[in-house]
Each structure stands twice: as C-alpha cells, then as structure tokens.
Amino acid sequence: MYVSIFTVTAISVVRYVAIKYPMKSRDILSRRNALVVCALIWLVTCSFSAAFHHVDDPKNGKTIKCFQKNKEEVLPLSFILVLDIVGFLVPFLIMLFLRVHHHGELDCVRRVFFPRSLRVFL
C-alpha cells in the first residue's frame, strides 16, 4: 500500500517538474533518476515493514502471517502516528501542494496562449 502511495506521489512530482520546467525536465527526469527514486521507494517501504515486524514481534515460536496482529498488546501510539504521518499525510500534502501549483501554472499558460474570446469555448 505504501509503495503505491509513494509511487503516485513520485508521478505527481514528475508531472509538476515537466510542466514547471519543460526545458530542464529532460535532464532532471532521466532513467537513472527514475531508478533511484524507485529503489528509494522500495527501501523506505521495506524499512516500514521491518519496523512493523520488529514492534509486533511474535513470541513463543508463533509464525508471522500477513495482515495479522501478533501481539495481544496495543501498538504504541507513536509508532502508529509515524506510519500515518509519513505514509499518508506527507504524500497527501505533497500532492496537494503540487496540484495547487500545477493548476496555477496551467492557468498562466491558458491566459497567454488563449485570448479571452477563445476561453469561452474551453
């Protein structure tokens, strides 16, 4: 789930860079940079998973099953807040910021290239 969220966030950043800096985007958005970003996304997500399994470590030789809480204890609030903030809130705020600025850039382009009379039809 976190990989999907971070990937959509990365795609939003790529779209913003391509619109904001169209001439520089070919240099900034290279295959190497895309591979580095994908590797970082997977590294961050795997570290979240490892941290979750460390916090919810089963005792007495139990096996770990996917999507199953292993301890009877409640997970620490600080751990849940970090997962929620880093995994959901930060990507949401990044995408919101980029979308607002992306919309502003497109409005400027529309005003320059499309006169007022043509805007009625668009």
Ordered list of secondary-structure elements with their pairings:
Blueprint: H1 2-20, H2 25-28, H3 31-55, H4 77-113, H5 116-119
Question: Can you describe this structure?
Answer:
By secondary structure, the chain is mostly helical. The chain has a single domain (2-119), classed as Rhodopsin 7-helix transmembrane proteins (Rhopdopsin 7-helix transmembrane proteins, Up-down Bundle), CATH 1.20.1070. It has 5 helices and no strands. The longest helix has 37 residues, at 77-113. The mean pLDDT is 77.
Q: What key attributes describe this structure?
A:
single chain, 122 residues, mainly alpha, Rhopdopsin 7-helix transmembrane proteins, 5 helices, 73% helix, 0% strand, elongated
Radius of gyration: 21 Å
- Main beta sheet: none
CATH C-level name: Mainly Alpha
Helix tally equals 5
In which range does the helix fraction lie?
A: over 70%
Give the overall shape: elongated
Strand content: under 5%
Distance between the termini: 37 Å
Order of helices and strands: HHHHH
**Count of individual domains:** 1
What is the CATH architecture descriptor? Answer: Up-down Bundle
Q: Let me know the average pLDDT.
A: 77
How many strands in all? Answer: 0
Which secondary-structure class do the elements indicate?
mainly alpha
What is the fourth-level CATH superfamily?
Answer: Rhodopsin 7-helix transmembrane proteins
Find the CATH topology. Answer: Rhopdopsin 7-helix transmembrane proteins
